[in-house]
Automatic annotation (TrEMBL), chain A:
CDD domains: PBP1_ABC_sugar_binding-like. Keywords: Signal. Belongs to the bacterial solute-binding protein 2 family. InterPro entries: Peripla_BP_I (IPR028082), SBP_2_dom (IPR025997). This is Sugar ABC transporter substrate-binding protein. Residues 1-22 form the signal peptide. Residues 29-298 form the Periplasmic binding protein domain. It is found in: Cell envelope. It holds the Pfam family Peripla_BP_4.
From TrEMBL, chain B:
It is a multi-pass membrane protein. Keywords: Cell membrane, Membrane, Transmembrane, Transmembrane helix. PANTHER family: ABC TRANSPORTER PERMEASE PROTEIN YPHD-RELATED-RELATED, RIBOSE IMPORT PERMEASE PROTEIN RBSC. This is ABC transporter permease. It comes from Roseibium salinum. It is found in: Cell membrane. InterPro entries: ABC_transp_permease (IPR001851). Its main location: membrane. It comes from the Bacteria.
Length: 338, 360
């Protein structure tokens, strides 16, 4: 504890010292919260890269997920500060657009990290995981693992929130497509007609929500044998619910994120497979792009065929299947965050 | 002179005067009649009756609509499991609200206590028994701070606990570094932390220790509030603190004890939560303050203090649980649950106001 305090102290001291060294160029990182390990890792990646390139980085975060006001105030602060670029993970993807426009009008490069703005071209560029692809990988893996049984699987869908945020919809629809289920409108979940989908419920992306949602769906059909989860905490909660009725060993759980506790759960067999995303890479690439913009005036290009720059995704599992590329948990642990 | 009078109109006269007077005990005359007044009167006497009726009705309605899918021992006890955390926290909230206070920090105290239990075990390697003790003390201390600020510094409970909510939550995130401790690690090294997750199976009905704890806690609190001097003082403070003070109630002590008890119960809720979700997660349960107030209000405890019963709170929590599971099983969009619970809250306050008029 004391060592931790000392470490925090020295980080603060270092932060206070940097402006004197590289005051000529600054950039901002604005995340949804500064407590979620995903964003903590993002900040680490951005800070390390900024230090390397001699850029002064200022970090801002909302108080809670969904804290839009603080993010707007942060953008205004960055404009006033004369920043060259802003890396932004928006809490409210459409309401933030006017503030982003203000910044871009002042010649600031704005890059959306992780979460695309709506519309996506409201930012100069988007560096993110291909969430649809992430879902598709676990869908393909689940279908291949079940083999012939996939034809009469009973699937529970544990989604993020009722408001159907883009990240949750993309993963959900990707999974269904990968599993071989016909989609309705790909922009929303819940409109599929395939009888293999038992139902959807929402988890808020945490353990408690995951458990409750799983219990609700099990009450509808106790013979569920495939569980899609929006992220690994929800998967851990779903596992507890299955354990509650003694079915933890005959149900396939798949997930998305690639956090360290999640990868550990794959290793232990709690989760069958998870799709791993790379927040550190998003942030460091973002800082590099700001540097390039400041030096040459060049904007980053999206990945060919997509409307964003894809920072990659990998399937982590210890039970690989033919036709779906994957890495094992040892490699996943080296790359995990949180 | 005086002694003469006394002898002349001696004690015997008082006695005879008494016997010639009316024998009936003083009572309020009730000149109103009809079903409306009678029901109103009964409800006034037994405040937990309204939520109980609503609970039974909603169980019957969902039972008719869904059949055995809902009306099975499994599904009905599942509701108990799903409301256990909110139920325990709402019991703490009830006691505070009875004193005309409010505790917005309950959810945060619960999460921090569970994090203390987890971190003391895994970061410092303490035995689980000690870590749990530390977690319970942590919750009680947070409650003591609330109580001290309310009783001695005389700040409004809403403000105190609004501030405490943020302080405790921030402490929780800073201290835990928002790291989750995994269920498997806990099961292996400190199974006692998951104690409340253990189950008793009675013919398809599954009761966790957490559920049993919730029910016992509510019964004990209901007894203590009704039958002990402390309990009556809690009601008195909530009804009229000045009058309570004048009649010899140590208002400050009662307030502090109430907030400390609330903190302690929240710490137990944190322990029960580890049992339910398996892991120690700093991000869970943050809406428990709102959910607990919802259960209290639907359960018929007056937000203005001094009226209501903790049994009603349990029924209130169960009503929310029945609606949530019932509507999900019917395949309704989850928004409908929120809409109906919103209506229930407003209806509950309206009923409370109507019942109050009986004593006017």
């Amino acid at each position: 504890m004391i060592r931790k305090l000392l470490a925090t102290g020295s980080v603060l001291a270092a932060m206070a010292a940097t402006p004197a060294v590289a005051a000529d160029m600054s950039a901002c990182l604005i995340t949804k919260t500064d407590t979620n390990p995903f964003f903590v890792k993002m900040k680490e990646g951005a800070t390390a890269k900024a230090e390397e390139l001699g850029i002064e980085l200022k970090s801002f975060a909302g108080k809670v997920d969904g804290d839009h006001e603080t993010q707007v105030a942060a953008i205004e602060t960055c404009i006033a500060d004369g920043a060259k670029g802003i890396l932004l993970t928006a809490s409210d993807t459409s309401s933030i657009v006017p503030a982003v426009k203000q910044a871009r009008d002042k010649g600031i490069l704005v890059i959306a990290l992780d979460t695309p703005l709506s519309p996506v071209d409201a930012a100069d560029a988007t560096f993110a995981t291909d969430n649809f692809k992430a879902g598709e990988l676990i869908g393909q893996w689940a279908a291949a693992t079940l083999g012939d049984q996939a034809a009469d699987a009973k699937i529970a869908m544990l989604d993020l929130a009722i408001s159907q945020p883009t990240v949750g919809v993309l993963r959900d629809q990707g999974f269904l497509q990968g599993f071989g289920i016909e989609l309705g409108d790909p922009n929303k979940w819940g409109d599929e007609t395939d009888p293999r989908v038992v139902g959807h419920d929402v988890t808020q992306g945490n353990e408690e929500g995951g458990r409750r949602a799983m219990e609700n769906l099990l009450a509808q059909d106790p013979m569920i044998n495939v569980v899609y989860t929006i992220n690994e905490p929800a998967a851990a909660g779903a596992y507890e619910a299955l354990k509650g009725i003694g079915r933890e060993n005959d149900v396939l759980i798949v997930s998305v994120d690639g956090g360290c506790p999640g990868v550990q759960n794959v290793k232990d067999g709690v989760i069958g497979a998870t799709s791993q995303q790379y927040p550190l890479l998003m942030a460091s690439k973002g800082i590099e792009a700001i540097k390039a913009w400041a030096d040459t005036g060049e904007k980053p290009e999206p990945t060919p065929g997509k409307d964003f720059f894809d920072t990659g995704v990998a399937l982590v599992t210890d039970k690989p299947v033919d036709g779906v590329e994957s890495i094992d948990t040892a490699e996943g642990t080296d790359l995990c965050w949180g | 002179m005086t002694s003469d009078t006394k002898t002349a109109n001696g004690p015997a006269d008082y006695e005879s005067a008494l016997t010639s007077g009316p024998q009936a005990v003083a009572a309020f005359d009730d000149h109103r009649h009809g079903w409306g007044q009678k029901i109103q009167h009964t409800l006034h006497q037994t405040p937990s009756l309204v939520p109980l009726i609503v609970l039974v009705l909603s169980v019957i309605v969902f039972g008719l609509l869904l059949g055995t899918k809902f009306f099975s021992p499994f599904a009905l006890t599942l509701i108990l499991q799903q409301v256990q955390i909110v139920g325990i926290v709402a019991a703490a909230q009830s006691v505070v609200i009875l004193t005309a206070g409010i505790d917005l920090s309950v959810g945060a105290i619960m999460v921090l206590s569970s994090v203390v239990m987890g971190q003391f075990t895994f970061r410092y390697g303490l035995p689980a028994e000690l870590a749990i003790g530390a977690g319970l003390i942590c919750g009680t201390l947070c409650g003591y701070l609330n109580g001290f600020l309310v009783a001695f510094v005389k700040l409004p409970p809403f403000i105190v606990t609004l501030g405490m909510w943020q302080i405790v939550l921030a402490t929780n995130f800073l201290y835990s570094a928002n790291e989750t401790i995994r269920s498997q690690d806990i099961a292996e090294h400190a199974p006692l932390l998951q104690f409340f997750g253990s189950k008793v199976n009675v013919g398809g009905a599954i009761f966790t220790y957490g559920v049993i704890f919730m029910v016992v806690l509510v019964l004990v609190l209901a007894y203590a509030l009704r039958q002990t001097a402390w309990g009556r003082h809690v009601y008195a403070v909530g009804d009229d603190p000045e009058a309570a003070k004048l009649s010899g109630v140590q208002v400050k002590k009662v307030l502090i004890s109430v907030y400390m008890l609330s903190g302690l119960i929240c710490a137990f809720a944190g322990w029960a939560m580890i049992g339910r979700i398996g892991s120690v997660s700093p991000t869970t349960g943050q809406l428990a303050n709102i959910e607990s107030i919802t259960a209290v209000v639907i359960g018929g405890i007056s937000l203005f203090g001094g009226r209501g019963s903790v049994l009603g709170t349990l029924f209130g929590a169960l009503i929310v649980g029945v609606f949530t599971l019932g509507l999900r099983l019917l395949g309704a969009d989850a928004q409908w649950t929120y809409l109906l619970i919103g209506l229930l809250i407003i209806a509950a306050v309206a009923v409370d106001q109507w019942i109050r008029k009986v004593s006017v």
